[in-house]
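retry 2 of 3: previous attempt timed out while embedding zinc ion. Reduced batch size to 1 and resubmitted. Inputs unchanged:
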Amino acid sequence: MIGPGMFMAGRAIRQAQEAGEATGREAARIARSARAQSETLQGDIERLFMITEALWTFLKQEHGYSDAELIDKIEEIDMRDGKIDGKVAKQPNLACPGCGRTMIGKHALCLYCGTAVERSPFER
Ligand SMILES: [Zn+2]
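retry 2 succeeded.
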């Protein structure tokens, strides 16, 4: 026998299925977006590799540097934060030389007093 309870249970099941399908579509959309971003980043990294290799080739040919010297320099930079781990740790924010307050972000001017601060182009 089919009563109102069965009818309501069937409707609840259909609503749950629809909600699950909507969640699945949203998850698929997010996954497609993440894949597209990843492919863009891989392309950017490949391009940077090629540019770096071209610049390194100039340095070897024009100035006589060797691959061993490059490897030593990479290790030296990696060790700046005290450990060889393939990355340089973020440095803590600088104190403004003008007012002594902690600089915010990577701004070239102190947001509090306007003092110009020279930043390293490779600052993390
Ligand atoms: Zn300042």
